[in-house]
């Protein structure tokens, strides 16, 4: 029982990230869902192309996180990728808020969650990388 709890705590940042990023990627790549979920209208092939590319990027990164959970030799790299992914997304959102104004509540939640997950992942890397 203790091993399972330790496993959950060690991988919590990756589990949370997968549970958020994988569905978000699928939503981004689904033009029929976007208007309902994010009030985004996909009116051009270029926008659809960009969103599908982002979808596959999100899915690909999630696969690395899954590998990090499944195979311990990938855990450090998956955690480093989580730090990079979350903090660069938060930085991009912050930049947009400064330059473009405040987005809807979902995206404001996004910057808070991404920043928190990025910082938490740094903590996890420091805590578990020494063992």
Automatic annotation (TrEMBL):
Domain of life: Bacteria
Transmembrane segments: 12-30, 50-69, 81-99, 105-123
Pfam families hit by this protein: DUF4345
Keyword Membrane: yes
Keyword entries, A-Z: Membrane, Transmembrane, Transmembrane helix
UniProt protein name: DUF4345 domain-containing protein
Organism: Tenacibaculum pelagium
